[in-house]
Amino acid sequence: MRKQFLELLLEMIDRERSKLEELWLEWGSTQHPLVYHQSCKLDKLINLYQRQKFFCSC
């Protein structure tokens, strides 16, 4: 079950990273609120994945 959760998190990270890349190309700066918000969202998902992976024995 945890392995499936980790796989889902990886899919979400990939999806959010793609959104960030699109926003970066459109707005070109981390100072833009949309780019900054997406960056924070991606960071939170990556941190969650790292914490879960650390405690996973799979």
Automatic annotation (TrEMBL):
Gene3D superfamilies: Helix-loop-helix DNA-binding domain (4.10.280.10)
Entries under SUPFAM superfamilies matching the protein: BAS1536-like
Domain of life of the source: Bacteria
GO biological process: regulation of sporulation
Record-linked InterPro entries: HLH_DNA-bd_sf, Spo0E-like, Spo0E-like_sf
GO MF annotation terms: protein dimerization activity
Protein name: Spo0E like sporulation regulatory protein
Organism, scientific name: Carboxydocella sporoproducens DSM 16521
